[in-house]
Amino acid sequence: MSTYPPEPFRIKTVEPIRLLSQTEREAALEAAGYNLFALKAEDIFIDLLTDSGTGAMSHEQWAALMRGDESYAGARSYYRLAEAVEDIFGFRFFVPTHQGRAAENILSAVLVRPGQSVPSNMHFDTTDANIRARGGRPTNLVIDEGLDPQSQHPFKGNMDIAKLKAFIEKTGPENIPFGMMTVTNNAGGGQPVSMANLRAVAETYHAYGIPFYIDAARYAENCYFIKLREPGYAAKSVKEIAGEMFSLADGFCMSAKKDAIVNIGGLLATRDEKVFQAIQNELILREGFPTYGGLAGRDLDAMAVGLYEGLDEAYLAYRLHQTAYLGERIREAGLQIVEPPGGHAIYIDAGAFLPHIPHGEFPGQALAVELYRQGGIRGCEIGSIMFAHPDPETGEMVYPKLELVRLAIPRRTYTQSHLDYVAETLAQIQKRAASLRGYKFTYAPALLRHFTAKFAPL
Ligand SMILES: Cc1ncc(COP(=O)(O)O)c(C=O)c1O
């Protein structure tokens, strides 16, 4: 059994967690209508719902909060953040935003016109929705290996360059206001993109005069994968690799709640001064003045410090190995996962684990609910509840290929024994997998139903 590098930090503040009794957990599930989003967070023992905004800040970040300058315009906090953004990403034109989707909203408002298309390897769901909200058409062109859960390709987040070229030719570059890449590819399992692929994507977009924007939520994890897996990068620092990555782009949007290890915050940057002016105007209308963008000064300071901590290589080695360790332990417990483990989460193949539960009875939900029932652990169904929809022409249900349960790992928050407990809980569930039953809706809204739906066990 391999372990992983010890946490490169020690614990100074603790937040107690408690495991409710079996009877209390059963009552909590019933009260929540078997929807894990409806549980009280305090009733959860280990919360792996998301890695977004759930990380632990460092003592330097907490100290930075106290240095926050709350001036409305031109605060010192803004200039400290601007220095970090220019140093790491090489961008001078940027605004802070309250989180990633605010950056996506502004970018889409400024650049997307109805009927236009925005290609990417895979858009995250908020990016997809923000492009659609402006009448645009988000398009996913990830390589085929990125859709095969058992493929061991080292860069499953890569764009299919041949498909991208064909798509641009068919659509016409004038109908593509910008192109994107998501690093790492969250919607595809947190899988990284290689530098060679990013360069080929940038060259392709630029050959057609299309600006290239990166969705940079987990750029540091992606850069560390490049260092580990891509020839020629082993001796480079992650910060150098990040510098090279962003030198290829004309702009980026970023949820800072991931690799900048803050509880709230985002960034939007561009090299185009005209676009920057439009971004500032849109920001002022909806979020706030360009030097704070809807955040407090102290949030900007925590982000400026967190951006560097997210690039720390001892931290990244621990982080990626921690995720891989959980994957290995879950495999040992007899469950299949999306291979190879990505940066921030393990995706369990619930469809393969519970073959007796059909799509329409939600195998992912059956496993996610059982994880809470057995061990007080919260994961997230990523399957038919989230993605099944009626065919607009036939009315027949179209089910996604995979029924997954995502276990996302908050940064610097849980230790190896927490992860061992998760794997041991799954091993116990594995022994009685055949007795697990599916669920049916008792209430389901038309859109984004996973957040508020209610269920009953079958
Ligand atoms: C790849 C990616 N882009 C954008 C976002 C949206 O960021 P936020 O939740 O900060 O709005 C997320 C959030 O999970 C993400 O994973």
Short structural description:
This protein is of the alpha/beta class and 458 residues long. It has 16 helices and 16 strands.
Molecular structure report:
This protein is of the alpha/beta class. The chain folds into two domains: 22-51 and 313-457, Aspartate Aminotransferase, domain 1, CATH 3.90.1150; 60-309, Aspartate Aminotransferase, domain 2 (3-Layer(aba) Sandwich). It contains 16 helices and 16 strands. It has helices at 22-31, 59-66, 76-89, 100-111, 125-133, 161-171, 195-207, 219-229, 238-247, 273-286, 297-309, 313-332, 350-353, 363-375, 384-387, 416-431, and strands at residues 46-47, 93-97, 117-120, 137-140, 179-182, 212-215, 251-255, 266-270, 345-349, 377-378, 380-382, 389-390, 397-398, 404-408, 439-443, 454-457. The strands form six sheets. Strands 2-8-7-6-5 form a five-stranded mixed beta sheet, sandwiched between helices. α7 (195-207) links the parallel β5 (179-182) and β6 (212-215). The two termini are 38 Å apart. The structure holds pyridoxal-5'-phosphate (PLP). Pyridoxal-5'-phosphate (PLP) is lined by residues 52, 99-101, 124, 126-127, 182, 186, 215, 217, 255, 257, 266.
